[in-house]
Design a protein that fits this description.
This protein has 542 residues and is an alpha/beta fold. 37% of the residues lie in helices and 17% in strands.
Length: 542
């Protein structure tokens, strides 16, 4: 069979459902092999969007998403989204093409060393030089991408290798993953530390956002009564409306949740990932327990005294069983938790216009079902959603606190709408970030997706403007003009809306969901509360 046919057979063997991308002439054999495959090829309008979509598939399923690009500029366009997947621990396999490598003399037109370029951005990067390598390299790519800690793996399939004949069409069987378990001794040490703690606190990190962990962790919180909080990328692993939930660590320090952290004598840190620095500085008599798949990477701000290394769900279940009947103290944080609830909700009904971000967050929460999904681009609004938005289920607030790149919000939401057509999906973007991949509206329309895009409009790069003002620098260089977003939506065949009062957002969103299809909602936003709420009010904790 042709090597490209064997490549597709190997991908099918891995359970690949979608390949997102833009082919070039160097990918044509592979594209032809996909034509009769069970794999759906999703053509995008930019390679970056394709890789964002593949990364999101990996994030949501735990199985590597797949994206495709040609050589040269096609491959370089993937770079930002590959870094997004790698830093965010999202399993992804990248396939790029290349000019023939055995065909003799040729120039350097479009030829870059893509394998070497991908090396620092991925867990592994390889060029396929013989068709017979395909089964092993494909199996290896998916194995490496999906094992803890997940990330990106790159395979380059040159044009002449793709078209060569191979004699053996056997592919490699997927092996069973065997995870290590923490020792009985370390479980006993952990149980004793939690039992002896007077003011224990549990932290849910990015690495805890795995399918098997949620149930074990929720049972542990319920049965022990331990107070808990989460990092931005750990949000939703445990129900955010739980009585023991004290908030999201949206800032590095000086917020209500950090006042509770300061009082804790033990922090049980579940799934810490170094891409999110721990929202505390180790000091005084505080003890930190590290429960993770891998040992802690010691830093001057993070050096846990207790480590449980192995399968997280297993560790938590064994600790819970050993602590049966024990109730953790929780009244010690009651007064600060009450202040937190007021700070989060007291502007939920504010009618001013342009709208305050607090009101928008509250209105979005009112409209969406418990399993509705919000995909956040990056900007000032991300802090407001991370801090104020309540999540009831995992992966219902998708944000990037790793690379923190702009431009991902719309492609991420599109992937959610593609995979979960029965659920409500909202992309929340700033006017700057939206325009970075707004061309994917055509892809969304072609795929007949159902989703809403909220665009926070302030005609500038709002977060940087705010930081500029906080540093007492002159307002310079960060303003721009926007298109008419209603007409822009209409030009793609989507439906555009512009909010003119605070009370319009909920009914417009409800009507959009009822109508189906792609809807763009222009929401003029007032960020004047940034300094008051996020700086001045928090000076009480200096």
């Amino acid at each position: 069979m042709k090597a490209s046919d064997l490549f597709v057979k190997a991908l099918e063997n891995e359970g690949v459902e979608y390949i997102f991308g833009i082919p070039g002439e160097e990918n044509l054999d592979l594209l032809d092999s996909l034509r009769n495959s069970s794999i759906k090829f999703i053509l995008t309008r930019h390679e970056q969007a394709a890789a964002f979509m593949a990364a999101t598939y990996g994030r949501l399923t735990g199985k590597a998403g797949v994206c495709l690009a040609t050589l040269g500029p096609g491959a370089t366009n993937l770079v930002t989204a590959i870094a997004y997947a790698q830093l965010g621990a999202m399993p992804m396999v990248i396939i790029t093409g290349q000019k023939p490598i055995k065909a003799g003399l040729q120039g350097k037109f479009q030829i870059l060393d893509i394998v070497r370029m991908m090396g620092p951005l991925t867990k592994d990067s390889d060029q396929i030089v013989y068709g017979r390598q395909i089964p092993a390299l494909v199996r290896g790519a998916f194995h490496i991408a999906e094992e803890e800690r997940p990330g990106a793996v790159h395979l380059e399939l040159p044009e002449d290798i793709a078209e060569e004949e191979v004699r053996n069409d056997e592919v490699f069987t997927k092996q069973i993953h065997h995870r290590t378990f923490a020792s009985n001794c370390t479980i006993s040490v952990a149980v004793e530390a939690i039992r002896n703690a007077k003011q224990p606190l549990l932290l849910v990190g990015a690495g805890a956002n795995r399918g098997r962990i949620r149930k074990s962790l929720s049972c542990f919180v319920q049965e022990t009564g331990i107070l808990f909080f989460n990092t931005q990328m750990g949000k939703g692993v445990v129900d955010g409306c739980h009585n023991q939930f004290i908030g999201t660590a949206a800032f590095s320090s000086k917020d209500y949740v950090h006042e509770v952290i300061k009082k804790a004598d033990l922090i049980v840190n579940i799934g810490h990932d170094i891409i999110e620095k721990p929202p505390f500085i180790m000091q005084g008599d505080m003890q930190v327990m590290h429960i993770n798949f891998e040992s802690a990477q010691f830093k001057d701000i993070y050096y846990p005294q207790i480590e449980l290394i192995g399968d997280i769900a297993n560790s938590i279940s064994r600790i819970r069983k050993s602590m049966e009947g024990h109730q953790c103290e929780s009244l010690w944080a009651a007064s600060i938790c009450e202040k937190t609830r007021y700070a989060i909700h007291h502007l939920d009904e504010d009618d001013s216009f342009p709208m305050l971000p607090q009101r928008v967050v509250a209105d979005v929460r009112k409209v969406l079902d418990d399993d509705g999904i919000v995909s956040l681009d990056n900007g000032m609004f991300k802090l407001w959603f991370a801090r104020h938005y309540h999540t009831y289920q995992p992966n219902t607030l998708l944000l990037d606190n790793a690379l923190a790149t702009m431009g991902a919000g719309l492609p991420v939401a599109m992937t959610c709408a593609l995979m979960y057509p029965e659920r409500q999906v909202v992309a929340v973007c700033g006017d700057g970030g939206f325009m970075m991949n707004s061309q994917e509206l055509e892809t969304a329309m072609r795929l007949k997706l159902n989703l809403i895009v909220l665009i926070f409009t302030d005609e500038g790069y709002g977060m940087i403007k705010w930081k500029q003002a906080v540093q007492d620098l002159v307002d310079f260089g960060l303003d721009f003009n926007n298109p008419d977003f209603v007409k822009y939506a209409d030009s793609y065949g989507a439906k555009g809306h512009k909010i003119t009062s605070a009370n319009e957002l909920i009914p417009v969103m409800e009507q959009a969901f009822n109508a189906g299809g792609v809807h763009i909602i222009d929401v003029p936003i007032d960020y004047s509360q940034n300094t008051k709420t996020l700086l001045e009010e928090l000076k009480q904790f200096n």
